[in-house]
Design goal:
CATH architecture: 2-Layer Sandwich
Order of helices and strands: EHEEHEEEHEEEEHEH
Shape: globular
Keywords: Acyltransferase, Cytoplasm, Transferase
Main location: cytoplasm
Family: Belongs to the LipB family.
Protein name: Octanoyltransferase
Number of helices: 5
InterPro entries: aa-tRNA-synth_II/BPL/LPL (IPR045864), BPL_LPL_catalytic (IPR004143), Octanoyltransferase (IPR000544), Octanoyltransferase_CS (IPR020605)
Number of strands: 11
Oligomer: single chain
Length: about 230
């Protein structure tokens, strides 16, 4: 049974979490015997720019968006522009794919399936859309996905709208999509605390990825990240 170590960062600035991810990703590239890490986090309001973003993805100037109190950060993940903020459950899955399956399409599909199965735990029926990545409740997106993979070591993951302020999505075309809306677990009338949702995510992860999760502290995560610093 593979062991994946897990930690809940709580509320953390996007840049700090991004820097930790980059270091852990490098650590995995140097240590192929390690299966990986699963981190949960909640970010202050921030728009992140994926490698495929377009100028029209923002509905206002970036200066205006920043003046409204949002951070704007350039990321190395795939996809367009997306939003992270309070009330959103963000999961960063950093693994050596050789311990699972060296197949990028499988990796993204499996992450989508993981979210679909977790939403079933709270009696929510969700689906995929053929044209777009992510998880949907009919024609409203509830979960965005984005990944970056280097030498079969992954980073980034999913952003599941829990009690998210959906008005914040009005500044952008989320993930470059204009014809559909955005929803959340709260908007769907489902009431489960964040800690319960994370427990569902953990249990489904262990079952679907055939792993055992082992909790580590924030101090341990930072120590591991420091091993890549010369």
């Amino acid at each position: 049974m593979k062991t994946v170590k897990t930690a809940d960062f709580g509320v953390m600035d996007y840049k700090e979490a991004f820097d930790i991810q980059k270091k852990i990703n490098r650590y995995l590239q140097m240590n192929h015997e390690i299966a990986g890490y699963l981190f949960f986090v909640e970010h202050p309001p921030v728009f992140t720019l994926g490698r495929n973003r377009k100028e029209e993805d923002f509905l206002f100037s970036i200066d205006y968006v920043k003046n409204q109190g949002f951070q704007v950060f350039e990321s190395n993940r795939g996809g367009n522009v997306t939003y992270h903020g309070p009330g959103q459950i963000v999961g960063y899955l950093l693994v050596n794919m050789e311990h699972f399956k060296k197949d990028v399409q499988w990796f993204v599909w499996q992450m989508e399936e993981w979210i679909i199965e977790t939403l079933k735990n709270v009696n929510m029926k969700s689906n995929r859309k053929e044209k777009y990545r992510g998880i949907w409740i009919e024609d409203e997106k509830i979960c965005a996905l984005g990944v970056a993979i280097k030498r079969w070591a992954t980073m980034h993951g999913f952003a599941l709208n829990h009690t998210t302020n959906l008005d914040h999505f009005h500044y952008i075309n989320p993930c470059g999509i204009t014809e559909y809306g955005i929803t959340s677990i709260e908007k769907q009338g489902v009431d489960y605390p964040r800690k319960d949702m994370i427990q569902f995510l953990k249990k489904n992860f262990e079952r679907m990825y055939m792993t055992e999760l082992e909790s580590i502290t924030m101090e341990e995560v930072k120590w591991i990240a420091s091993k890549t610093e010369a």
